[in-house]
Amino acid sequence: MRVEARLFLGLAVFCWATAVLYGFWSAHAQGHVEVAGLAALILSGGLLGITGSFFWFVSRRIDPRPEDRGDAEIAEAAGELGFFSPGSYWPVAIAVAAMVTGFGFAFFQMWLAIVGVLGILFTVGGLLFEYYIGGRRPAA
Is there a contact between 40 and 25 (Cβ–Cβ < 8 Å)? Predict the structure, then answer.
């Protein structure tokens, strides 16, 4: 996780440094600071910082992975990585529900946005529990 933490935190610092340079440049070139681009850079750096700090905290709690160690061999990372769904229609349903929500907000139709948000919640639940087979039940 240290690799991911360094990547995201480095990009956050880059966004913030770019925001400072962009603010000075736009103030000098236009006579006033261009707020939309400056806000986008600052907020992007903030989101990257949140993700990077999460990875940093997680990397302190778990054992170093082979990617995090300089002396690791390629064969150490071999093996099963986890279960990945071979095919699912739930992501398409989530996208359709997000599209309905977007149309509701774009056309100021709150009823459509509410239907879309409910659709997102339903489809995310479907994706989450797609392979759920129930808890352990005592043998009868």
Answer: no
| Identity at 78, one-letter amino acid code | A
- Distance, in Å, from the CA atom of 84 to the CA atom of 70, rounded to the nearest integer, reads 28
**Euclidean distance between CA atoms 53 and 45, whole angstroms:** 12
Q: For residues 12 and 79, is the Cβ–Cβ distance under 8 A? A: no
- Range with the poorest average pLDDT among 6-10, 71-75, 79-83: 79-83
Instruction: In whole angstroms, give the CA distance from residue 92 to residue 40.
Output: 29
Categorise residue 84: left if φ over 0, alpha if ψ from -120 to 50, beta otherwise: beta
Spatial separation of the C-alpha atoms in residues 117 and 138, rounded to whole Å: 38
AA identity, residue 70: G
Is-contact 92 120, C-beta < 8 A? no
pTM above threshold 0.85 = no
Instruction: Count Cβ neighbours within 10 Å for each residue of 66-102 and write b for 16 or more, e otherwise.
Output: eebeeeeeeeeeeeeeeeeeeeeebeebbeebeebbe
- The full set of domain ranges for the chain reads 2-71, 90-128
